[in-house]
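Hello,

Our lab assistant flagged a job as stuck in the queue for most of the afternoon. It eventually completed. Since we weren't sure the result was trustworthy after the delay, we are filing this so someone can double-check. Below is the sequence as submitted and the structure that was eventually returned. Let us know if re-running is recommended.
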Amino acid sequence: MSTGIAGRYASAVFGLAMDGKALAALAADVDALDAALAESADLRGMIASPMVSRQDQGNAISAIAARMKLSALMANTLRLMATKRRLFVLPQLISELRARIAAEKGEVTAEVVSATPLNAEQTAQLAATLKARAGKDVALKTTVDASLIGGLVVKLGSTMIDTSIRAKLAALKNAMKEVG
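-- returned structure --
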């Protein structure tokens, strides 16, 4: 249900941004909102809580939008979402907008999970390798998961490449169970 709601809002916002030639501003707003959601447990709690009134959500989101210097389009959209009690779909809205912006730019997004943070050279090399495979520019969304022990897990579209040590150990464990 929330994906459908987010899709409708994303379609409207994206269309208005395209008409107003404000795609770069929209992309900056999406990045800023995504970072704010990742950093602030209070913000995540406020958008998800049914205990916070519409007016309080609207006031809070207006203050946040002003503080973050979001575009008028995004600020107005967030206020509308608050009055309609739809702020809970903000993470899905961000994902939808990212996908639409990337498609417009001719990019694809690859989700990369690594055991340790990637340095700039590794990131550039991985992006170049994935670009050669996909035939399009690739934007990397990287996260760190120490439980991988080593290696990477890359999700590019519907393709998943798991070169992690954890996956190799699991495959070895299964192979040993079959033998014994």
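-- support follow-up --
The delay was a queue issue, not a problem with the job. The result is valid. The chain has eight helices and four strands. The helical segments are 2-19, 23-39, 41-48, 54-68, 72-83, 90-105, 120-134, 165-179.
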